[in-house]
Amino acid sequence: MEFLRRALNPWGEDVPIGVSWDLIWAAVIIGAVFVVVHALMVPKKVGTGEVDPDEAAGLPEKLQRHKPGARGFHWSMSATMFALLITAFFPVIGIQFPWVTIHWIAGVLLIVTVIYHIYHVFAKQDFWTMWIDRRDIEEGKQGLKAALGKADADRPRAGKYPVDQKMFHHVAMVATLGAVVTGVLMMFRIDNFLWAERTYMFSDATWGWIYVIHGICGIGLIFLVIAHVYFAIRPEKRWMTWSMINGWIDRDRYLQNHDPARWTVPEAGTQAAEAEGD
Amino acid sequence: MAERTIGTDISPPDLHAKITGRARYAEDFHAEGMAFAKLLLSPMPHARVRSVDTSRAEAMEGVLGILRASELPRPEQGTREGALSDEPLYEGAPILAVAAVDETTAAAAVEAIRVDLEPLPFVLDPLDSLRESGPNARLDGNVPGEDGPTSLKWPGSVFDEAGSDRLPMGEPTAEWAIGDVDAAFAEADVIVEETIVHQSVTHHPMEPRSCMAYWQNGKLFLHGSTQSTERTRGPVAAMAGVDVEDVVMIGEYCGGGFGSKIAGVPIMAVPAVLSRKIGRPVMLRITRYEENYIGRARAGFQGWARIGFRSDGRMTALDLYLVQDSGAYGASDLFTAATVATASYQPENMRFRGVPVYTNTPPRSAQRAPGGAQIVAMLEPVVDKAARELDIDRLEIRRVNAPGHDGWLGPNQGAFTSAYVREALDLGGELFEWDARSQLSGRREGTKVTGVGLGLSPFTAGSSGRDGLLVIRPDGKLYVHQGIGNLGTHSIADTARAASDVLDLDWDDVVVVWGDTSKHLPYSTVQAGSQTAHAHTRANHAAGEAMVGLLQELAAGELGGSPQDYRVADGRVFRAGNRATGLSFAQAARRAIARGGKFSGGEIPEDLNDVTKGAVAGLAGEGLIAAAKDNYGQPGAVFTWVATFAQVELDIETGEVEIVDLASATDCGTVIHPRSLAAQTNGGVFQGIGMAKSQRWVFDPKWGIPFTKRFYTARPPGILDVPLRPRFAAVNEPDPHTPVGAKGIGEPPVGAGEAAYVCAVADAMGGMCLCRTPLTSDMILAELEGRPRPYGLLDTHV
Amino acid sequence: MAVIRDMIPPFELYQPAGVDDAVRLMDEHGSEGWVLAGGLDTFDWFKDRIKRPAAVIDLGGVEEIRGIAGGTDGGLDIGAMTSLTDVAEHADVQSRYPLLADAAGLVATPQIRNQGTLGGNIVQDTRCWYYRSGWPCYRAGGNICYAATRRSMNREHCIVGADRCVAVNPSDTAPALVALDAEMVVVSTSGERTYPAADFFIGPDIDIERMTVLEPGDLLTRIVLPAPWDGARWYFEKIRDRKSWDFSLVSVASMISVQGGVIQDARIVVNSIAPYPVRMGAVEAAIRGREPSDETGRMAGEIAVEDARALRHNDYKIALTRNLVRRSIRDAA
């Protein structure tokens, strides 16, 4: 299997023109294998663990985990992501339809969504909630052992976001930003509502690498989306999925999975609680 | 008495072979053990070869050898073009050649070679190169200097002042003047001014320049496509690094050259040297694709003209500026162009300025009326514009300015040998019914608008001082040895008629010997510059007269009396008044062989060229041999003029132009071969129309690569693009300074046809000159519809 | 590796004697196979070594798809391997489908019409010279259209229907067949399918590497013409730089049914302005019920170019399309 698609440019120079489409299937297969292996190896743990009543004291029944804005971002991102992946890869695998317009409009929407998200992360949210620190690494180690059934200790409770979610976020962020940045550059190859084409603003080899990065990110996102969807529907994680729909988690889930020291939820009904939960 | 053959139609001796397919062109030859070569062409418009890895190719079964530029005896140097180059100056320049047992293997081997190229700056548009920040096409400069190329840049202000619709005119590299143009403009009644672009176009001969070579006993035998057989030997010898005596050049048929195959083409070096290297005959079949690159092209101009007229239509001032696209290795069209302009208009005052600029486009060479066709097509519509302003008939304004026998040529204002220009204009005008037709100008029928136009085109048409060589063999026939090539113009046969007419010999008793230098061919002109008909009717006439003298002397020696008592006619030399006392040519040949000495090549006239002397020596003892140099004298430039008249219909909804009638008249001296003359003239007219109407040479400006590499994209005109029966007439007045009276015809029709077309189109557009070639339907329609112009006024390669 | 052109590389030649054998061979070789009809598109690709199939399936011996026969319901059934000369000179085509006879008769040159087939003329690839030069453009699987930049030489390219690629469909017969409501019969190992001519051609938005619905393994076998409209007027015009051996800059084909002095129905198709023959639906709708006059033509022309957008060098195609559509109504006979 070739990793890159290459071609001779008009001057006979060997340049990359994109990533090999075989990698689409590789991503799909790796994703499927991951899902199957994970499903077989990792036991489902639903609703385990006791809740310390002291900790529960003073906490409301429902704690807001995602504000409407954050949920809006997530679902907008997922919609555009699905649109982008479908329009990008279905034609390649033989399901043909006019995809380009949908693809770039979805891309523009994704960019808007991402900009909104970045703005909120820096302006409204605590940027560090997604940061991976030493405790996260420890949590990850224990979690991994627990998942492999080797743990003698329970997995430590997470901050607002469990470490695997944080890792997923960062990988997805890199892939998305990679695809977004290269996608924006690719828009310079066609006349559009913002600017006239500047096809020759880069050398063709540079363009080739831009397409390669776009392709790698896109194909990477296939795998990430498969994994993400898989986890979203796993029984023990459905409460998190629900929280992305309705915005809240119940107190027990909170206390079972989150370390109140690391994710402090103010008391119910305060303005701060809503703001924090964004 | 034998019928005088000059002025009659004959079937040339090569005709049957050509139309039956028996004629063998260069690539039809095969030699024992012949290998095939293929070229590796540069993919970049300008690059340097860093390294070449041929290992994979050399390991392939059937690959016999690889030839690099450094192995050529005459490698590229300065502006001297080599057959192969390690610094390719245009996309498609051959870098190396591979020989293999067959072409399939050779091509596969070329594909297996890895060439590491360093891209270098390149330029397609001369004006881009003249900008301060513009690239040079060559590492050593962009214009020719005294010691090779040098760099010339114009200040930005030159471009700023000119804007986008006027030629920027900075410091020229060439300049001359007659009189005082500025003073003349001050007094002119009408002044017209235009920026005009003439495109570069490739030659596209039907036969690409394939060649096959082999060596025997140190001699190089080369089968090639050439316009000039004998004169090709020297260049081939230089390319192969051998003495001229060691080259046998064979080229009996040439499928068109148009000036691109004048005397050996650089690529001939490849089979010649590769064959020596691998010890086998090598055939290099040039494909249409390759021919597009190495097959030469006409130099294009970006020009500007300002022309002043007196109220009577006399041109009092011509100020001309030409920027020439010289390709990678240079061209001299612009100098000819300025000179030809004087032969059209005899301007009372003139200034010429020009800059030839190197570009990274395929090499230029002469193309049928180099410089001449361009300038005629560029200036004639401007003259029409003045005629309209002066309210003078367009035919009349040309008559007013045309040279007479006392006319002059070029910056030195030399004389012409003859100039029946007004006669040609009048004859053409009558043939075309100009007076009535010009009234149709602007007539609208449906969506079609009629336009009429004419173009007058002068070009060089002769030279002198060549040699003729005749042999009467014991079979009684006259063998006319021709060193000229067989370019398809029939001159191979037609110039031989000068000898047969002097000898009063039936044409059936004449054998033309040509196309193979081992057949002992005399020194000749290069078959270019439309010289042949003039130069070789003279040379063969001189040889014919020498032959008459030898026959008389021989007869007197054999039969008594003095040589003056003898006449020559009908294949006999006989005593005047007594035809029975004489010798047949067969008898004369046998007697000549017996007597030897000057009769049979034993004594050779001193004034002959060494080539002819060698040929005579080679023939010695084979018959009665007469060789003579043309010493008739030539008191001026030999020029031919062609006037072409065109009527067109322009469809204002599509921009399409249909040529409904064409008529041409020429002053080319005595008509030798009426049918061939008409064919030559009409063919040239069509070629000129093609340059204006449909033919293109389009390059991608980003990559410097041409697209018009095949006939269907280059679009030379087809027979359906011209009227079925173009009309033709010749003044048929002999040039008084040449014994047969004939002048050449090959080149002048091109500019005439092209100019007639662009003038007629301008006429159909109400006198609006788009002043550029090609003048395609899209440009016309955009103009008619008031839409954005498809191209900038100064754009080249569109 | 160096590039060399104008030298056909070796391939395996297969010469099936029937459609069944042909599609079986095509299926066997898949994307490594190449269907050869008249060769006029094929050999350019082969000579330039850009398309290098391992197997060439020559339809020269497939007699069952050569020739013209009366179709059902008064139509005509034309085998895809019928030469363009035979199409142009066939008595029935000339008398009943003069539009097609005219279009076929304007292809290239007599020699090419003798050799070229109707099927080949329909399915031929674009002549975009960037693509034909073997450059790695979108259509060739790359990531760029070399023809659509501000510096490109695109006089011959698209004014409508572009989607990254701006190449045009070069066929002369295609617009005529769309105007005639022809149907294309396609056979593969999985059976026979039929497409209306208008749906047979696809744009780069659907598949940037193909001009038609044909996929590897599909063979266009027959072109079925329905019975012609009674007393229909027709018009065909091809604008080109030379009168022979030249592709159209713009061509127009129209069929107009006029009753009682007004247009009942019409087909207006323009080619070489898009990657596919463009059926001008809006024009057809707008002219129904109107007189076939210059005024109607003028209006139609304006509608025809409403969505047109010029590239750097082809603005003239907008005017040309407008004028040809106008003519195709005004001058239809």
Walk me through the structure:
- The complex is a heterotrimer of chains A (278), B (798) and C (333).
- Chain A is built from 10 helices and 4 strands.
- Chain A has helices spanning 22-41, 53-56, 68-89, 100-123, 134-147, 163-186, 204-233, 238-246, 251-257, 271-276, and strands spanning 4-8, 14-19, 62-64, 248-250.
- Chain B is of the alpha+beta class and 798 residues long.
- In chain B, strands 3-4-1-13-10-11-12 form a 7-stranded mixed sheet, sandwiched between helices. In chain B, strands 8-16-15-14-9 form a 5-stranded mixed sheet, sandwiched between helices. Chain B has a 5-stranded mixed sheet with strand order 19-20-28-29-32, sandwiched between helices.
- In chain B, helix 11 runs parallel beside helix 22 (748-764).
- In chain C, helix 12 packs antiparallel against helix 13.
- Chain C is 29% helix and 20% strand.
- In chain C, the strands form 3 sheets. Chain C has a 5-stranded antiparallel sheet with strand order 4-5-8-6-7.
- The model of chain C has no long low-confidence stretch (mean pLDDT 96).
- Among the domains of chain C are: 63-123 and 168-225, Uridine Diphospho-n-acetylenolpyruvylglucosamine Reductase, domain 3 (2-Layer Sandwich); 233-330, 2-Layer Sandwich (Enolase-like, domain 1).
- The termini of chain C are far apart.
- In chain C, a hairpin with a 5-residue loop joins strand 4 (68-70) and strand 5 (76-79).
- At the B-C interface, strand 1, helix 3, helix 9, strand 30 and helix 21 of B face helix 13 of C.
In short, what is this structure?
The complex is a heterotrimer of chains A (278), B (798) and C (333). With 278 residues, chain A is mainly alpha-helical.
